[in-house]
Amino acid sequence: MNKSAKGFVREVSLPQIHDPRGDLTFVEGGNHIPFEIRRVYYLYNVPVDSERGGHAHRELEQVVFALSGSFRMRIDDGTTKSDYWLRDPRKGLYISKMIWREMDAFSQGAVCMVLASHRYDEADYFRNYDDFRAEVESHQA
């Protein structure tokens, strides 16, 4: 687990039910996910050379899954940077508030699903990295 003064990142594992007809995985907000789910969205048809993300959130928490294929999550808490590869649909990455995230290296046919703690609110975003770093530094002083 990667911790910072404002946030942290950790792996989330979901249950898997094996069956000869195929496996089943389910997710329950407040149980498998450390918040009630307010929004679900997914990315697909992402060109393999594209980058997504490039922002942080003031309050929003997320869990990100690769439902199909793989991609890299580049995580930055303002002090430490880490890379996580998502490729198992049973394993997600919990990202708390005040964590900068970037996504790249999408495999062909990758599908990324995001479970979010809040509805969309543009005011919750840091879209400029320098503004994000300034906010992190102001809370470390």
UniProtKB/TrEMBL annotation:
SUPFAM superfamilies: RmlC-like cupins (SSF51182)
Domain of life: Bacteria
All copies of domain Sugar 3,4-ketoisomerase QdtA cupin, residue ranges: 12-136
CDD domains in UniProt: cupin_QdtA-like
Pfam families according to UniProt: FdtA
Entries under InterPro entries matching the protein: QdtA_cupin_dom, RmlC-like_jellyroll, RmlC_Cupin_sf
Gene3D superfamilies from the UniProt entry: Jelly Rolls
Protein name: WxcM-like protein
Origin species: Roseinatronobacter thiooxidans
